[in-house]
Amino acid sequence: MSAKTGIILKTPQQVEKMKELGSILAEIVANLYELVEVGNTPLDLEKRAIELCREFEVNPSCMGYMGYPAATCIGVNDQAVHNIPKDNKFKDGDIVTIDMVIDQDGWFVDHAVTKGIWNVDTKGRELIENTKKAMEKAISTVKAGKTIGDLGAAMEGIIKPLGFSVLRNYVGHGIGQEMHEEPKIPCFGTPGQGEELKEGMVFTIEPMVAEYEPDITLDSDGWSTRLTDGGRFAMFEHTVALNASGVEILTKRSEKGLF
Ligand code: MF3
Ligand code: CO
């Protein structure tokens, strides 16, 4: 079955390894989240991310991935996915997304959060809150026999009625001994369509949401992106496993996790 679909199922022991690593990533990202404050810069967070990777003895997987030059992707307001951190200062009202992947002993985990700084307007707060809600809704949909289309429909079902939109050219993905494995997990879909979810699957759920239209413009650095219409962007992401007992979030701090 996995040969046919290209999906690599994981054993409970492998999921356990990814969960330990996921709790480290959650800890690192929670630390970076605290640093998203007026006057700090994406580059400050990047430096801290690299320090924390050293402390926890994990690799920042994005660094060097297809030539990407940083450990983190950090976007502000209309900046969408894969933004190379720079020295622009965060301002009151900014909406900041941190996305990071780490690996250890050949296993990868992926996690992203969005934070609004102080006086974010109502629409911006709605964008952030509902992006998180879309992630939670899709996670609660993960069950054996459900399909990838059910997950996308769950995400878009929260986002679209609010007048926001989901990105179409970037998707969630299987993850394990590679950062990106099969299957692709779009943030949109038709219920009952697409690959069936099975025990042993590990993948990311990552609603990527635009305030208005989802069209993206690529920067001349070849990585950083912006929403073409200047709307703002939000994204939340967990790495999850479908175990015998149901869905499990792997990128969570033990018990007292923020996210
Ligand atoms: N979480 C991002 C993704 O899965 C990180 C990619 S690393 C980068 O696409 F190098 F491509 F930025
Ligand atoms: Co990802």
Q: Helix and strand layout, with pairings?
A:
Layout: H1 2-5, H2 12-34, H3 42-56, E1 59-60, E2 72-76, E3 95-104, E4 107-116, H4 122-141, H5 148-159, E5 165-166, E6 172-174, E7 181-185, E8 202-205, E9 208-210, E10 216-218, E11 225-227, E12 233-235, E13 238-243, E14 246-249
Antiparallel strand pairs: 1-3, 2-3, 3-4, 5-9, 6-7, 8-13, 9-12, 10-11, 13-14
The structure holds 2-amino-4-trifluoromethylsulfanyl-butyric acid (MF3) and cobalt (II) ion (CO).
| Strand segment count | 14
Overall mean pLDDT:
96
Each distinct ligand: 2-amino-4-trifluoromethylsulfanyl-butyric acid, cobalt (II) ion
CATH H-tier superfamily: Creatinase/methionine aminopeptidase superfamily
Main sheet properties = 4 strands, antiparallel
Shape: globular
Query: What's the CATH topology label?
Result: Creatine Amidinohydrolase
**Topology as a string of helices (H) and strands (E):** HHHEEEEHHEEEEEEEEEE
CATH second-level architecture: Alpha-Beta Complex
Number of helices: 5
- How many domains? The number is 1
Helix content: 25-40%
How far apart the termini lie comes to 34 Å
**Gyration radius, to the nearest Å?**
17 Å
Residue stretches low in confidence (pLDDT < 50, at least 5 long) are: none
Structural class: alpha+beta
Q: Tell me the strand percentage band.
A: 15-25%
CATH domain class: Alpha Beta
